[in-house]
Recover the amino acids of this structure.
């Protein structure tokens, strides 16, 4: 009797351990993808879950309520804590999935979320044909499959400048390349204006100047060489870019509080004219507009934009998690169909109202951009025509470049160490992806 | 029983007496419900942590394959892990020192049972029950270069003061560990107080009659009698802060220049990159590290108590 009870306990332990491991193992579904339903078909009783970051929470509000009114469906919005991407990946790893979520429509973004296993294909989506052909296939594709829908102009990176500061320093023509920009910086400094601002406390803004310095290399396919192991971060291409960035800091052309600088302080300083130039993503536009009391006229009078690379006015395109939405394979055919319907509505019947609500620039030639959009935003968006993908949109994986650069600014890493750390982490990530040759 | 003995009892592992009589009155299957929870919430995760450390589990693909020691060789060869381990240990030691110093000083200060002292004890205990993230964010705001603390110094000194409390590559780790110690000092205070309260009054009276000063009594009688409380406080503060994350995340996020990057911050970063197996391997290293430190530490502290 005693023996058998011991045996039972042991057997239970083994069984429980096995149950435990199956629960944790990631589940994959292979349900057949449902076709695209009519945009306003009735969906009473269907509830969809959408994941947003704190930064993207307000974006879908209006389109969700009009979709709910039109179809009777309910969309529950869940805020995922910052830094959005990692909590999302962690949740998916434990088997928790939404129906729709914001996600970066880049190759590395779609690879990291394992799009093939987790996301619905949007290949035959009804809105694709109405998107501007020049922008249609730039983002959202992984291989030949489309997994993400771009909701507005993707994030673009370049120089935002204060017009009054430029005038004060006697700069009348905009810099056409990096050398001219540095010369303008020296002139500004002589006039008592801080030429550039960076934010090593927030860290992430530090990547942009180096990325702009890599613009020409990016255009000539350097990231592809990186992906195929023909190039390395430890090559002169990358080292020179970081060295140039560091020399600008060492020359005193940056804000003296660069170590404790933040994105918020950057925005205020640029609008006030304490700082002349800020290399940032297009999301700086809305932040500046808010800072200007939502007065587009004030913003346009004060702030301008130009793209920059070593030799030209090149803009970087860097779609982020607020620029696109993805639909998940949940294994529930009814919800998957409803999700597709929601996306089709957003990019279809609901698109014009959505753009108006958000003051976004249209991606569809037949839908006009709202008239309230500041000229600055249109100027930035036009940079897309002369743009090249940033590291996030071209490399297999993006190492923590911002962490290493802010370490360099704080003096705990040299340029060489930054390059080495980039290469080591890049190889590690590429290997984890099972990329060829790593 | 004095508090020292109580703490001792808490630390002592209960001896399992496998008397045959007990078997008939307490059949073994009685522990099944307890074991169920122990297995689901403790054993399975620990075993999986161990297993996944030797795989290539990542967010990039669905299948998980064994990859031997490659996670560990990669981690140790890059040097980041060793650097972060060093920071973690330094942080833990600093926290242990400050937390116990503050706690002990408070216990001595608030030893007498006056109304004011009771209120003060409650006040100093409040940070313990506060959210660590909230504490971190408050300090982060207060210690900004143009924040209230520097403004206060500027006012007192009559000249602008801009001390980079959280942006100094050599001193910020001390500042952050003081914040950590500040949050937890109430707990150390409480345990020291319990220890002080249970010292036999007759011993202290005898000392007083013999002409011992306050400081002599403290040094030669009260402090040695506090040994069990010290064991508990040092062990919990040192080992507990090895697993710290929240306060550092809220104040410096591992910066400036990675000088406060605790292992847990690095683990979250690796997890965020989708490198789940590497992150798991790192947490295994941390677990081993804590164990390697815990056994000799607790053993030597307990050895100290035996002189009593």
């Amino acid at each position: 009797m005693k023996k058998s009870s011991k045996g039972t306990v042991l057997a239970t332990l083994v069984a429980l351990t096995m149950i435990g491991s199956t629960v944790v193992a990631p589940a994959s579904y292979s349900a057949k993808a449902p076709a695209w339903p009519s945009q306003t078909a009735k969906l009473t009783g269907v509830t969809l879950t959408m994941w947003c970051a704190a930064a993207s929470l307000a974006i879908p509000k209006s389109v969700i309520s009009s979709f709910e009114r039109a179809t009777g469906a309910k969309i529950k919005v869940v805020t995922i804590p910052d830094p959005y991407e990692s909590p999302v990946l962690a949740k998916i790893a434990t088997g928790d999935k939404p129906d729709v979520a914001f996600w970066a429509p880049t190759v590395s973004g779609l690879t990291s979320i394992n799009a093939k296993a987790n996301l619905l294909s949007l290949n035959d989506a009804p809105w694709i044909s109405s998107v501007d052909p020049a922008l249609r296939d730039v983002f959202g594709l992984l291989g030949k499959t489309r997994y993400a829908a771009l909701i507005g102009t993707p994030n673009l990176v370049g120089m935002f400048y204060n017009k009054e500061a430029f005038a004060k320093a006697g700069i009348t023509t905009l810099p056409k390349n990096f050398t001219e920009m540095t010369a303008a910086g020296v002139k500004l400094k002589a006039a008592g204006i801080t030429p550039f601002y960076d934010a090593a406390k927030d860290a992430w803004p530090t990547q942009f100047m180096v990325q702009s310095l890599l613009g020409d290399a990016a255009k000539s396919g350097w990231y592809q060489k990186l992906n195929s192991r023909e190039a390395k971060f430890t090559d002169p291409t990358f080292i020179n870019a970081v060295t140039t960035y560091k020399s600008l800091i060492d020359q005193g052309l940056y804000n003296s509080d660069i170590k404790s600088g933040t994105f918020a302080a950057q925005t205020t300083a640029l609008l006030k004219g304490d700082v002349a130039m800020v290399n940032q993503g297009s999301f700086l536009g809305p932040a500046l507009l808010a800072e200007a009391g939502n007065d587009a006229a004030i913003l346009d009078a004060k702030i301008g934009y130009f793209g920059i690379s070593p030799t030209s006015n090149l803009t970087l395109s860097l779609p982020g998690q607020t620029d696109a939405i993805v639909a998940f394979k949940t294994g529930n055919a009814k919800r998957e169909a409803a999700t597709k319907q929601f996306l089709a509505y957003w990019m279809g019947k609901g698109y014009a109202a959505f753009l108006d609500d958000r003051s976004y620039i249209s991606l569809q030639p037949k839908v006009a951009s709202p008239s309230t959009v500041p000229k600055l935003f249109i100027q930035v968006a036009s940079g897309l025509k002369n743009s090249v993908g940033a590291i996030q949109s071209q490399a297999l994986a993006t190492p923590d470049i911002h962490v290493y650069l802010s370490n360099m600014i704080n003096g705990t890493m040299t340029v060489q160490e930054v390059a080495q750390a980039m290469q080591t982490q890049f190889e590690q990530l590429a290997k984890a992806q099972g990329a060829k040759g790593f | 029983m004095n508090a020292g003995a109580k703490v001792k009892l808490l630390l002592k592992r209960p001896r399992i007496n496998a008397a045959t009589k007990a078997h008939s009155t307490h059949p073994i299957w009685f522990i099944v419900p307890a074991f169920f929870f122990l297995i689901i919430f403790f054993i399975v995760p620990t075993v999986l942590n161990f297993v996944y450390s030797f795989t290539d589990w990542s967010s990039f693909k669905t299948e998980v394959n064994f990859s031997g020691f490659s996670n560990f060789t990669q981690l140790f060869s890059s040097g980041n892990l060793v650097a972060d381990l060093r920071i973690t240990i330094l942080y833990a030691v600093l926290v242990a020192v400050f937390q116990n110093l503050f706690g002990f000083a408070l216990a001595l200060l608030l030893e007498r049972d006056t109304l004011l002292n009771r209120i003060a004890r409650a006040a100093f205990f409040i940070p313990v029950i506060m959210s660590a993230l909230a504490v971190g964010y408050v300090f982060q705001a207060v210690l900004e270069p143009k924040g209230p603390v520097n403004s206060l110094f500027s006012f007192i000194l009559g000249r602008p003061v801009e001390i980079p409390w959280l942006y100094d590559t050599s001193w910020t780790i001390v500042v952050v560990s003081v914040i950590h110690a500040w949050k937890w000092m109430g707990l150390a205070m409480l345990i020291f107080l319990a220890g002080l309260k249970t010292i036999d009054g007759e011993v202290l009276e005898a000392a007083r009659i013999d002409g011992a000063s306050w400081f002599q009594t403290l040094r030669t009688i009260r402090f040695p009698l506090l040994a069990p409380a010290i064991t508990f406080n040092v062990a919990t503060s040192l080992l507990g802060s090895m697993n710290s994350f929240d306060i550092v995340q809220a104040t410096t996020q591992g910066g400036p220049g990675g000088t406060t990057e605790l292992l847990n911050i690095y683990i979250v970063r690796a997890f965020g990159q989708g490198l789940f197996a590497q992150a798991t391997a790192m947490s295994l290293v941390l677990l081993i590290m804590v164990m390697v430190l815990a056994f000799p530490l607790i053993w030597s502290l307990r050895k100290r108590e035996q002189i009593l």
User: Anything to note?
Assistant: Residues 77-305 of chain B form a domain with the MetI-like fold fold (CATH 1.10.3720.10). The mean pLDDT of chain B is 89.
